Amino acid sequence: MSAEEKAKAKAEQVTGKAKKAAGRAVGNERVEAEGSARETKGDLRGAKEKAKDALDD
Q1: Is the pTM of this model over 0.70?
Q2: Structure confidence by residue, pLDDT tens digits, 1-38
Q3: Distance (Å, rounded) from C-alpha 18 to C-alpha 13?
Q4: Cα 11 from Cα 16, distance rounded (Å)
């Protein structure tokens, strides 16, 4: 996995977790859902890069 893509995936995961927790803390379902979506996007980006690495080997 390229270091740049790995960093982007991790950043999305962390940002998503923080936004989800903030939304949950204040009772804002929309913000919580946006955080969850961003975290999932980061997970998928990481999975995509791992799959690309597996195909290259």
Answers
A1: yes
A2: 577 888 999 999 999 999 999 999 999 999 999 999 99
A3: 9
A4: 8
**The pair of three-digit structure tokens given for residue 49, joined into one six-digit string:** 């890069």
Cα distance between residue 32 and residue 37, in whole Å: 9
| Measured CA distances, 13 to 19, 39, 55 (Å) | 10, 4, 24
Q: What are the angstrom distances between the C-alpha of 35 and each of 15, 16, 50? A: 7, 4, 23
Q: What is the 3-state secondary structure (H, E, C) of the chain?
A: CCHHHHHHHHHHHHHHHHHHHHHHHHCCHHHHHHHHHHHHHHHHHHHHHHHHHHHHC
